[in-house]
Amino acid sequence: MSTNPDELLPAGVRINALNGGAAPTGALSAPLSAEISAALAASPRGEVQVRAVDLSIPLLERNDILAERNRGYFLGRGLLALNLVSSPGAGKTTLLSRTLDEFGREVRCAVLVGDLETDNDGRRLNRPHAAVAQITTGTVCHLDAAMIARAAESIDLDDARVLFIENVGNLVCPASFDLGEQIRVVLLSTTEGEDKPLKYPPIFKSAHLVLLTKVDVADALGFDRKVAVENIRRVAPQAEIIELSARSGEGLAPWYDYLRTRLPRRAGLRPASARSATEGQSQTGPTVAPMR
Ligand SMILES: Nc1nc2c(ncn2[C@@H]2O[C@H](COP(=O)(O)OP(=O)(O)O)[C@@H](O)[C@H]2O)c(=O)[nH]1
Ligand SMILES: [Mg+2]
Q1: Ligand 1 center to 182 CA (angstroms)
Q2: Average per-residue pLDDT in the chain?
Q3: Residue located nearest, by CA, to atom 19 of ligand 1
Q4: If you take atom 3 of ligand 1, which residue's CA is the nearest one?
Q5: Order of strands, edge to edge, in the sheet holding 287-290?
Q6: Which ligand lies nearest to the CA atom of residue 250 in the structure?
Q7: What percent of the chain has pLDDT over 90?
Q8: Binding-site residues, ligand 1, Cβ < 6 A
Q9: What's this model's pTM, rounded to 2 decimal places?
Q10: Among candidate residues 54, 62, 64, the one with its CA nearest the CA of residue 16
Q11: Cα dist. 125→25, 96, 223, 242 in Å?
């Protein structure tokens, strides 16, 4: 049997990415078509390789489109959107709580917070002066752009200048999902060890800013801050680094300065006719609960 993929299919026809059926060539993006051809070439019988490669590509393409839409929506409102990513327990909610209490009194902030289960973090972050929505993802290990669009719609962002997105605690999955943020913040805590940037490079490579958190307990843990910073620089030379503690307050002033200097200019009032972030999207999936 021939292993040339073009000889396995009728002319002008390719395998459909989602259901395995035949479709006109034009229905597939060029990279996907190339991946399928390569998969067919690697397997004379075709089937298994093709199905293994296909599925994630259209999902990520769809996410990227929605993420661009979110980005335009946030920028159009003069909002600085940050996506905070880390292992569970690195200190995202604690840092955001203190940020809302200090920086958030000067600059109005809002928070979208994701977890698999519970609205604990949403309740911890809830403040009269900050709109907060909890996204409960169920079994999904990351937030995606559609969830963010729905959650952003559920809260009042009218006077907000900064939108913090606390991602699901995970150093792997969130790396692949653009949420439409302008700034990706990766937190590395002293309790995790200095080597995590070397072990989980994709998420660090995608960071604009790395926060080295819980530095107040670094000495007690025998955590070498210098080595950690060197590891971050080696993997993510593009990222700025701030060492801080939400408990002692060390490093919070540079964090607030970082935010302050990146606030987008306000583009004036949003026209009443402006499209919402979710227009045209289905309203099923993970739950979104605005905190009241
Ligand atoms: N010593 C110390 N502990 C912290 C700091 N920030 C957070 N923690 C603790 O770390 C644990 C996890 O924090 P949390 O904010 O829930 O982490 P998240 O899962 O990333 O949101 C909690 O027990 C916090 O009290 C810090 O700066 N210093
Ligand atoms: Mg949290």
Answers
A1: 25
A2: 85
A3: 89
A4: 214
A5: 240-243, 209-213, 183-189, 80-85, 162-166, 109-115, 131-136, 287-290
A6: 1
A7: 69
A8: 86, 88-94, 169, 213-214, 216-217, 245-247
A9: 0.78
A10: 54
A11: 50, 7, 29, 22
Q: Which domains does the chain have, with CATH numbers?
A: 79-287 (3.40.50.300)
pLDDT at 54: 54
Give the tens place of pLDDT for each residue, 244-273.
Answer: 999 999 999 999 999 999 999 875 544 444
Ligand in closest contact with the CA of 255: 1
**Minimum-distance ligand to the CA of 190?**
1
Going by C-alpha positions, the residue among 215, 218, 241, 246 that lies closest to residue 229 is 241
Mean pLDDT value across residues 86-104: 98
- 126 CA to centre of ligand 2 in angstroms: 13
* pLDDT one-digit tens code per residue, 155-198: 999 999 999 999 999 999 999 999 999 999 999 999 999 999 99
Q: Give the number of the atom of ligand 1 that is nearest the alpha carbon of residue 244.
A: 27
